[in-house]
Amino acid sequence: MALHAELHRHLGGSVVPRILWRYLEQNSSELISRFTEYSTFEEYYTGKRNTLDEYLELHTLVESVQIVETLPYFIYRLIRGAYIFENLAYLELRYTPYLRTPDTFNQSQRIEKMAEIVDIVGKASQISEYPVITSQILCMHSRLPYEVNKAIIDLAAQNKHYVCAVDIAGGDIYYRERLEEWISLYDYALSLGLNTTGHLYETSNGCYPELLPYLRRIGHGIQIPLLYPELLPDLAKHQQCLEVCPTTYIKTGTLQDISKLKTVFDLCFANGVDIAICTDNAGLHNMRLPFEYENLLTHNIINFQQLQACQDAAFRHAFAWPHSQGPASLLNGLLNPKL
Known about the structure:
Helix content is 46%, strand content 14%. The chain is of the alpha/beta class. It has one domain: TIM Barrel (Alpha-Beta Barrel), CATH 3.20.20.140. The strands form two sheets. Strands 1-2-3-4-5 form a five-stranded parallel beta sheet. GO terms for molecular function: adenosine deaminase activity; metal ion binding. Keywords: Hydrolase, Metal-binding, Zinc. Belongs to the metallo-dependent hydrolases superfamily. Adenosine and AMP deaminases family.
């Protein structure tokens, strides 16, 4: 049995449509009142959007119900599905804790409440019957003020037993006007010994070379091989891994055809840049990680040898994987002790 690592999955976008529908039926009927039946809700929830901004608006629907009282409900089902249907051995969940706090609180109260969110997510993710190694990535947000984003970094540093890295999310077009601020925040995170990743070079609006030196991994990064391939040797030199999420680029309208990703993989392999294949928002896409693999193979974007290289890279670049080897080597040792 192959075991996989998922390095880029959002907590908000991870809820599969059927589970969200059942929850809303029982608890928040007003949020689904405009849908006559489940099929129309699923079509809306998983449908293709025209822009990244339009796509990101879907997160607000889930964020509004992922609160202190309900997070264990959603996380249990998330981990169960990841273990049973995806064969995940390792999962990094990313989210903005501030957006899970009550919007009736003032900013200071919401910042203080974030610690409880991180603790709940951490404890709820440890499920003995579904032994997946999990860790959290806390996302700064492009539409949140500096004080909140700095508090998110401080919270990550104070909870390294649950948190493995910080990220920036919320729409890459908005980074430019506050670029010096993001640089200072990432520099601060590194000074605290935190790992870093960031939504960068996902779209043509998100190309900020100034931020690259501050990232251990790059969230998406597909525009580097597509538009700026001259940057690839430097990424290889610094061992920066791309977190490529194939279905996302079709859902957001970033790419019209998945075949465009062949250039991404070919150039990265040619230049020695690692890629981890990820789902991003498995629930919004109705997509499991093994199906991402299958789609890339079916469309002749990668071959089986390259797929194995990407799977190995995912464990090698996992921020909180506790072993020096991937699970295949560990299983071989258990099942074939003479090897």
